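Feature request disguised as a bug: please show the residue count (254) next to Glycerol operon regulatory protein in the output. Example input:
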Amino acid sequence: MAVDRQLTIQAVDRALAVLLLFAEPPVASGDGRGLGVTQIAERLNLAKSTAHRILSTLEARGFLRQDPATGRYHLGLKALELAGAYLAQSDLPTVAYPEMVHLRDEVEETVSLYVRDRGDRVRVQKAEGRHGVRRVVGLGQRLPLHLGASGKVLLAFTPEPERSRLLEALERQHGIDIIAFRQMLDKVREQGYAVSAEEREQGVASVAAPIFDRSGQLVAALAVSGPVQRFDEAAIVRYSQAVREAAHRIGVLL
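Example output, currently without the count:
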């Protein structure tokens, strides 16, 4: 029996869209309590019966699990296996981690590694800070490029004309002032690092630097982040030097 290719692709696309809902921040995806069939159907504009079939299939394959007490769905162990496979197969998070731990021990703040995926940045490795009050981050989190030090770095060191295309998209989607934003990116390229304070998240500051491979290609952004009150002028000077040195060492190892 022949299978309609368009319908098959649509089914895959819908299943992936369901999985991606669980990757959104907890507040958006149900305060960490999982998602119900009705929520998912409404969010994705699906018939409830269609959403239920997709959820049942993903549960059967281990990508989702259903809480018998609430009926809500959560990510399953297969999703974790995929994340583990990515980390095992990608040189960057593995090579970067020891240097990230060294940097974390030096500055005592949370260290994160970001890569650009189209118009977003994604956290692919982390080393959480030593302080009792610290920045707690999750792997795989997708964040905007125009907010935060890491996003600025990834934009600033992206070659033209790709940078222009990204800035035009950000102007359409978020209404940024391209002229002012370009001037800020020029400063980031000149000094070799970027700083942000409470741009995306209240009470959080960060300092980030680019990681280049041996051919000089931008591969990632390395960031130190923590409570804004610990990022005074003296701390930013120290952190910017430390994060640039760590980024350089990671680039050499790559």
